[in-house]
Amino acid sequence: MLLRTSRLAAIFAVPLTLASLQAADVSRQQADVFARKVEQIIVQGNTAQRSNGRRTPVSETEVNSWFAYGAKPLLPTGVTDPRITLVGNGKVMGQATVDLDAVAKKKASGGTFDIWNLIGGRVPVNVAGVLRTKDGQGTFDLESADVSGVPVPKSVLQELVSYYSRSPTRPQGVALDDPFSLPASIRQIDVGAGQAVVVQ
Asked: DSSP per residue over 114-125, as a string?
């Protein structure tokens, strides 16, 4: 159940990018609200007799509270403090602190101008893009990415995503451009300003 919850939560964080977050906005109570909503979405998705068009609103504060209080055991080693901003019209921004040393050791070629020789340490990684969902499928269109405020090309972000999303079933990790299936019979996710609505 925890794994399914993390997969659904990851949809709201697909980019893992963000703007600033006020500590007062995050609370264990809001994290619990988000966890209950995810469980309701999962139950609804597993119900044989679904009511088409069921809509579950999820706030930015609820998601960020869950990241603060419930996500830590599910995050890959080297990724901390994820946060998201739901901008609206599908646009999502996210941020996480990422340990670049492990990736740099694997990817560095030793060349003078190799970017992996120039970056390292635990740094904020910011991403912005548009989440598009329809008929149970989703895509993420990257608009921008930066490491510690320095813009980086999509290829660098892809290396980070690939490294930290590896699993036994996906040893190469997740590709940014690949479409993905929405879990729990979700048909679409409408991203508005500060809130997303899950439609089943």
From this structure: -GGGT--SEEEE
